[in-house]
Design brief:
It contains 3 helices and 12 strands. By secondary structure, the chain is of the alpha+beta class. The protein folds into 2 domains: about 35 residues; about 180 residues, Ribbon (Umud Fragment, subunit A), CATH 2.10.109.10. Strand 5 and strand 6 form a beta hairpin. The protein is elongated, with a radius of gyration of 35 Å. It starts with about 30 loop residues before the first helix and ends in an 18-residue tail after the last strand.
Amino acid sequence: MDTEAEPLERDRSSAPATGTEERSRFSRIPSRFSRVPSRCAASVSWRGTLALGAVCAVGVLLFSTFVVQPFLIPSGSMEPTLQVGDRVLVNKLAYRFGSVPRRGDVVVFDGTGSFVQEAPPENPVSGLLHGAAASLGLAEPAETDFVKRVVGVGGDRVVCCDKRGRVEVNGRPVNEDYLFAGDTASRAPFDIVVPDGTLWMMGDHRSNSRDSRDHLGEPGGGMVPVDKVIGRADWFGWPLDRLGTVPDTTAFEGVPAPGPAHG
């Protein structure tokens, strides 16, 4: 009887691989496709970033359209209150809930039909891009948008000038402390009554401002309809050393309400 134990067959699955043994072709599959997950992750990451950027851009544009809009000051017509290159933040809610522009307010408005008889033609695509940039304060405003100070409201009689060279509103002289140094209230005399629902606008730098005075002989007589007001310039957004609120004025506090004696 053969008592010698038969040698047990070695389990090949546990045997170490020899140098001559060919590696399984399936063992190379992960190395071929190991970059696929990272590429997919990168693609998803870029798509997420682009989507987030688009959402943020739309949100900013909507905020600018309906709430607060940056407005680049393109000229010196409102000096010294507003300087060339300032970005003011226009409060579009200022007159949305029953409030109306008051004498002394600095407002941004669409001058089509008053300061500009019709909007100049432009390429639709470039116009859209420029409008988007302007609404973010990155480009000059449209040629039909202006920033001026309200000097007369509906029913007011505005006269220039009294013996001391001041504008009178409803018979009361106005000490306009915001005027550019050395400027007079107006070199051209005028005597007008502001129709209801409109505004008489003037720049603070009177000798460097084309405003309601320059359009007296045109359709509309230089009067700006209240519904053309875009908003009130309430704050400075740029430059950093001018951050804060646009200065208010008390120049019109003593002006009486319009009445038959003044109209």
